[in-house]
Amino acid sequence: MVSIDAALIEFLTSGLVLGAATRDDRLVPDVVRPAGLRVEPGGQEVTFFVATITAGQMLKNVESNRRVALVFSHPQDNRSVQLKGPVLEIRPAREDERPLMDQYRARFARMLEPLGVPPSFVMRTQLWPAVAVRFAVEQMFLQTPGPAAGAPFEGPLRSPGPQP
Amino acid sequence: MIPLREIATCFEGVIPAMMATCSLEGEPNVTEISQVHLVDEKHVALSHQFFNKTQRNVRENPNATILVFAPVTYDLYRLQLRFDHPESEGPLFEEMSARLQVIASHTGMLGIFKLRSADVYEVLSVEQLTSYFLPADPRLDPAAPTTGVLDAMARELRSLRAISDRVNRASCLEALLENVLQALDEELGFHHSMVLLPDERGHLVTTASHGYGTAGVGAEVPLGEGLIGTVAARRRPMRVAGVGAELRYWRTIRAELQHAGKAPAAPEIPLPGLPDAQAQLALPLLVGDRLVGVLALESREAMAFDAWTETFLNILANQIALGIDRAATATADDEAEPPPGQAGRGRSAAAGPRTRVFQLFRNDDCIFVDGEYLIRNIPAKILWKLLRANAETGRTEFSNRELRLDDSLGLPELRDNLESRLILLRKRLEEKCPEVQIRPVRRGRFELQVGCGVQLRESDSA
Q1: Does A152 touch chain B (CB under 8 A)?
Q2: In the predicted structure, residue B281 carries a pLDDT above the cut 90
Q3: Chain B contact present for A158, CB below 8 A
Q4: DSSP-derived 3-state class of residue A92
Q5: What is the pLDDT of residues A88-116, one digit of tens each?
Q6: Model-level pTM?
Q7: ipTM topping 0.90
Q8: Which of A 39-78 lie inside 8 A of B, CB atoms?
Q9: What is the Cα–Cα distance from B108 to A125, expressed in whole angstroms?
Q10: CB atoms < 10 A from the CB of A122, how many?
Q11: What are the structural domains, with CATH classification, of chain B?
């Protein structure tokens, strides 16, 4: 079991592009765009939230086989990490978790604005009602484009390269 | 299924896509990919330049799913894919490889990474995911323009005809190039454009530019380098949307390489023209298979140039090419009518107090003025001939014919491009040494106007 340290938590929750992959019993993968997350105390589990209206196939998949992969990608400098592991719990998101999703959406909008994406568009993203998916982080991979992409991530995540 | 051509903008590489695959053991994998290429109505392709989990997965389990965004509208689509086959040669591979190298070259990584294959996927389904978004708020999201597609096409066609007329009426090469770039701005709103013509070494030299101020004319692009050099080498138009995203992607790879101790040696090459261009389009100017130049456009809007723009500008490019060729192949001395209003507008030739020092380096036929690079090759030889004649005899008027007959200048017998070389020389002087000017006086004749003291120095090398 791997553990997510404070520096990585700060990166993962900074309003990054998120993608969650699951697969069905015929090995056909599905991908959704989660709308927020929380690294659980101890750094060994992550809960992510997906608007229920977009989560149909993902829910069928994780109920059937419990495998999930979650990628985090920084839209400005492409630093990227992927987490994988078994799903431990699927349940409706609670009201007290809704501010986490609002916070993610606001950070994501701020992250994309310098790239020309209007915040008004990001703020139209569906959030609620949502499902919460908690999984154990068994593996972490560096996903930043380049020759080392796909290697096990052992941290720390480097600072972005120069962006002239 | 939504036809792929209806969502073609999703495949311009402006917004990265998200891709999920699955290993044979049932382990899902998800990653961002910088660009999905549209191949035809039933296929897309992904570039394979690094060995990674995605490539391994689809080779053992061909199922894949991607999410793609449309730029501007941000509509989201889910595509179910099945890996079909890799291609490591042929037109698709060459097109994708050239695109990869165009951006790689700007980040100093030309040739560092080769495209291993173009991985072709069959598209099984396309679905728009409207449920990801709440309805647009009219107070926050301005309504899309209501102009119909047919109206827009009719307007573009009228503009095209207007530009075409200006190309056709141009009295000389300089007027042709200036008219067409100005018309691209006025008629179609393309504010930044340039025409580059090949010189005797095969390099492309910026001979006319619009929207860049006075700088830029004389800038050179080697054949095969960057977008313009690649378009010239392949003789096919290319466009890059989302230049910013592409550069960010390659700078990340460059930083990763440096971290791994494999830093590429080449420095980053600035983009020609706008430092913050988001879209570029370059079209070869061809007469038959012969390259007579490149028309290059830039924009700060990521989606300024789409497939339609490329198609209709290609029609214009063909006409410009014929116009350039007509000017270049005119061998008589009556081909160079001065551009309207230029013949008599030269500045006074009265010598001022300032003295400019022209230094010729004979080893590479290169002239510096007061220590600053001015011009090289045949235009440099022409300038030296004029300046020497002026210094020795006080002569100011010259003819195209005598230049053509002077073997020491090295002009080719056929298609000598004399007029384009004189345009380049005139513009470089305007920018770097406005006290010395070349002005057309009548057909096939021009005047050297010297408004300062001139000192000539020669040496074999710098």
Answers
A1: no
A2: yes
A3: yes
A4: strand
A5: 999 999 999 999 999 999 999 999 888 87
A6: 0.76
A7: yes
A8: 51, 53-54, 65, 67-71, 73, 75-78
A9: 38
A10: 20
A11: 4-132 (2.30.110.10), 149-242+278-329 (3.30.450.40), 355-459 (1.10.10)
